[in-house]
Design a protein that fits this description.
Creatine Amidinohydrolase; Creatine Amidinohydrolase, Chain A, domain 1; alpha+beta; single chain; about 600 residues
């Protein structure tokens, strides 16, 4: 009945060969007179979702998370992860070889400085590190005179005999009715951000796809084409992309706007720019140090700063916002059909984490508009729900019985990208669960109802979502919200709601609102909607004020809510939200789902 076409549940993690692979790496390093190696979980663009050919960290260590870093020395090795993966990493790596370290407590540079021997030579691939990363390592290594050595070839690639080929997914043109602005207009805006530079090297494929109104198929779940671009202050931009990705129609359309070049031409163009003494703007977050050093060594000036495209892309235009709203109505109907089905099927037994994920993807495919899921579905029952970025596999798959089920999922439609999390209970909710769930819900509502002045950043809002948990001595280890793209990445910067979110929020930005709570070994709770920053008119206001429009549509599980913990304002918000969900989605779902929806969105 149900099936998954856009995700696999095969166990991609394997540390069985880790010992042999680390031994082979150490032998190769010794052959090159090196004492260690730096291995990030990254490709040449610092993407969160990377092609299979760039999964070097997983190949060596077995760790499959979306963020990680390993340092391998002659005798010791460590893998660094953030708070999302402290549980997962211990299940996936061989602890006899790699020591897992929370990066918030010790950075890779600090560890190398402490563990590396005096005068050690540490190799790295300059294509998969930014200049900032290498500068931090160099500074930390100064005391021991540790030398960082850029390598011509990644040593992992020499050892990985069955490494997948580089992707050549087809590039498509994003229709104007969804893009809302021509590529020529976007290029003009970007040129206005050069600030005296002769050119800008674009290294973030999301920014390139946005700027040129194209989409690709090189990585799972994110419609980007892996490529670079050079935007001069005058003349046609240059797009460095594998020609196999372009059909005749797409190439002809692009060549009206820019010059298509093979990827191998990029280094030569950097060297030529250097010889002319050009000043080139590089993105601090994604530009490979290889390109920056090629320009500098040839005599050019590298200006490493924030990518001006990031902020322009983050502020959505009217067409993109209209598309996002339409996508969320469509997606909300599919998710609500799933929740209604789950409420009936789960108590009967027989469901598993995988069958639930397959069912949700199927309901989304039945919209007829699904292009892909926006990330692998987090379908987590019981103790697995306490792992924020849990990924179900055939090996880990749990049967769903009485207890807590968390589903974090999203979709890619031509008109928008969705990301939503709901936590539901099968059977009766305990008093403790209701307390924790309601505190998370109160934090969610605090963000949804927030009003803040122009210039405020996500860091200033982060505590709004945590206060109800803090009052009970509880917290969670991830940010409250991340930016979301327009049929691009489900995780988009620079906007975010977190302790590190310093970018001022602007009308038109889309973010998630997803506080959580995780009780290791028992259950996890996360409640996520997407919101749009909007202006707010307040009588007598002395400053421009902003707030949020919630665009995700799906019921929260009222069986987990303790209304006694909520204020009148919070109850009013929840009732109004549920009334809006019911009114908007009822015409789009079948009669059985409508009956369930009426009860699921009842006023409390």
């Amino acid at each position: 009945m149900f099936e998954a076409k856009f995700q696999s549940f095969a166990d991609a993690s394997s540390s069985e060969d880790s010992a042999a692979r680390v031994a082979a790496l150490r032998a190769e390093l010794k052959r090159q007179n090196l004492d260690g190696y730096l291995l990030p979980r990254a490709d040449a663009h610092q993407n969160e979702y990377v092609p299979k050919s760039a999964e070097r960290l997983a190949w060596l260590t077995g760790f499959t998370g979306s963020a990680g870093f390993a340092v391998v020395l002659a005798k010791e090795a460590a893998i660094f992860i953030d708070g999302r993966y402290v549980i997962q990493v211990r299940h996936e790596i061989d602890g006899r070889i790699f020591k897992p370290i929370d990066i918030a407590e010790t950075s890779p540079a600090q560890w190398l400085s402490a563990q590396g021997r005096e005068g050690a030579r540490i190799g790295y691939d300059p294509w998969v590190h930014t200049s900032g990363q290498i500068e931090r390592f160099a500074k930390a290594a100064e005391a021991k005179r540790i030398e960082l050595v850029p390598l011509e070839r990644n040593p992992i690639d020499a050892l990985w005999t069955d490494r997948p080929p580089e992707p050549v997914g087809p590039v498509s043109l994003q229709p104007q009715r969804y893009a809302g602005e021509t590529a020529a207009a976007k290029i003009k805006k970007l040129r206005g951000s050069l600030k005296g530079a002769d050119a800008m090297l674009m290294s973030d494929p999301h920014a390139i796809c946005w700027a040129f109104n194209i989409r690709g198929a090189d990585v799972a779940h994110t419609p980007i084409a892996l490529c670079f671009a050079l935007l001069p202050k005058d003349g046609a931009p240059r797009l460095y992309i594998d020609d196999a990705k372009l059909d005749a129609r797409t190439r002809a359309a692009l060549e009206k706007l820019l010059s298509v070049q093979p990827p191998a031409a990029l280094i030569d163009d950097m060297i030529d720019a250097g010889k002319r003494g050009d000043a080139v703007l590089f993105d601090a977050a994604t530009a490979p140090v290889k390109l920056i050093e090629a320009l500098r060594e040839a005599g050019g000036k590298a200006r490493v700063a924030d990518d001006p495209a990031a902020l322009l892309k983050a502020v959505k235009n009217k067409a993109e916002l209209a598309g996002a709203r339409a996508a969320h109505i469509r997606d909300g109907a599919a998710l609500t059909r799933f929740l209604a089905w789950f409420a009936e099927a789960a108590p009967k037994g027989g469901l598993t984490e995988i069958t639930a994920a397959e069912a949700l993807e199927t309901f989304r495919r039945e919209t007829g508009a699904l292009r892909d899921i926006s990330f692998p579905t987090i379908s987590a029952f019981s103790e697995h729900a306490a792992i924020p970025h849990y990924r179900v596999t055939e090996k880990s798959n749990l049967k769903i019985g009485k207890g807590v089920y968390l589903v974090d999922s999203g979709a890619q439609y031509l008109d928008g990208t969705t990301d939503v999390t709901r936590t539901v209970v099968v059977g009766r909710a305990s008093r403790q669960l209701k307390d924790h769930f309601t505190r998370v819900l109160k934090g969610h509502i605090a963000i949804a109802r927030a009003v803040f002045p122009k210039g405020a950043s996500g860091a200033q809002l982060d505590a709004f979502a945590r206060r109800p948990l803090w009052e009970a001595g509880l917290d969670f280890d991830h940010g409250v919200g991340h930016g979301v793209g327009a049929y691009l990445s489900v995780h988009e910067g620079p906007q975010r709601i977190s302790k590190l979110g310093t970018t001022p929020l602007q009308p038109g930005m889309i973010l998630s609102n997803e506080p959580g709570y995780y009780r290791a070994g028992e259950y996890g709770i996360r409640l996520e909607n997407l919101v749009i920053v909007e202006t707010r008119e307040i009588a007598g206001a002395e400053r421009d004020m902003y707030g949020f429009e919630t665009i995700t549509l799906a019921p929260f599980d009222l069986n987990c809510v303790d209304a006694r913990l909520m204020s009148a304002e919070e109850i009013a918000w929840l009732n109004a939200y549920h009334a809006h969900v019911r009114k908007t989605l009822s015409p789009l779902v079948d009669a059985r789902t409508r009956r369930w929806l009426r009860e699921a969105t009842r006023a409390i």
